[in-house]
Amino acid sequence: MKNLIAHLENSATVFLATHVNPDGDALGALLAMARALQTSGRDIVMYNESPIPAVYRFLPGIDQIAREVPSPFDFEAVVVLDCGDLERVGAVADLIPGRAKIINIDHHVTNTGFGHYRLVDPTASSSTEIVYRILKAMDITIDRAMATSIYTGILTDTGSFRFANTNSRAFEICAEMVGCGVNPYMVAQHVYGTYSLGRIKLLNMALDSIEISPNGKLSLMTLTHAMFAETDTQPEDVDGMINYAKRIEDVRVAALIMENANGHATAANGHKRYHVSLRSDGSVDVARIAASFGGGGHFNAAGFGLDGSLSELKGLIYTIASTL
Ligand code: AMP
Ligand code: MN
Ligand code: MN
């Protein structure tokens, strides 16, 4: 941590990036870290490859997140947040010059240990919790804007203090953030109380799609391009839906297969790109399962990408069921 902070403090220009299809933790960690560096006089550029989900557009500073990679790419530090591997930032991973000093701040158990400086703690509730620790170590005064980002990151990554990563520090930090001016009701209203009608209709289709494996231990939810088109929704609107499939009695692993929203086949044989999300009831390590398909994540929440046909993918998911 000392070397990491020394490098941050010695860097006048900092590029900060987080994973594609960002969640509240990715954005909270990005915004809090960037603002802390900005208020202490550094030139920063925040980057994310994907559009910002509507429910997070209230976060202070969110409009400053760029989707274009700066050219020339010349920064003294590159901070990568909430990414288990560098490729999770998207195409920009290939554009980061070899000489750039990369700082890896993360809490995924599958973190590959990339970068020159690392603060990876799988016991942390969230990457935002780790950013909080760094801010404290740097003696940064946490203002209301930073506090809102930190609070939102912890709130969303713990599933509102319900998931297994909920720890005492999550409560302590959030209580402190409320003391810094965060309004919990306002945050909850933005994150959970402003869904589009299309999102609710999509939820209806998602619930209707649930299938259970013959042994009852795996549930499968499927979201196709046609469902997104019919409800005028995006992949960001799927956030959290898999938890309904996980709540079913006797289910140990819930899987969600999501067709990429553009619906284009990626190959001449009609194969399409899918994202698969996995959630466990705590008895199965889904990070290990996801890693065997080239993805990663946490013990209870993981994911991977795959090309194929829907029927092939379903068959593959059911082979997981037979191992449970
Ligand atoms: P998701 O199912 O997309 O909500 O992701 C659950 C967890 O798995 C998150 O912590 C993600 O960062 C991680 N994850 C999802 N997809 C991938 C992937 N393709 N590679 C590595 N980690 C992933
Ligand atoms: Mn994340
Ligand atoms: Mn996270």
Give a short synopsis of this structure.
Helix content is 35%, strand content 19%. The chain has eleven helices and twelve strands.
Describe this structure in words.
This protein has 2 domains: 2-192, inorganic pyrophosphatase (n-terminal core), CATH 3.90.1640; 197-321, Diaminopimelate Epimerase, Chain A, domain 1. The protein contains 11 helices and 12 strands. β1 (13-18), α2 (24-39) and β2 (43-47) form a beta-alpha-beta unit. The mean pLDDT is 95. α7 (197-208) packs antiparallel against α8 (225-231). With 324 residues, it is of the alpha/beta class. Bound molecules: adenosine monophosphate and manganese (II) ion (2 copies). One manganese (II) ion binds at residues 19, 23, 25-26, 82.
Strand order of the largest sheet: 3-2-1-4-5-6
Please identify, by name, the CATH architecture of the largest domain: Alpha-Beta Complex
* Average residue-wise pLDDT: 95
If you consult CATH, what is the topology of the largest domain?
inorganic pyrophosphatase (n-terminal core)
Kindly estimate the percentage of residues that lie in beta strands according to DSSP.
15-25%
CATH class of the largest domain: Alpha Beta
Uncertain ranges: none
Number of beta-strand segments: 12
Task: List key phrases describing it.
binds manganese (II) ion; 2 domains; six-stranded parallel sheet; Diaminopimelate Epimerase, Chain A, domain 1; binds adenosine monophosphate; inorganic pyrophosphatase (n-terminal core); alpha/beta
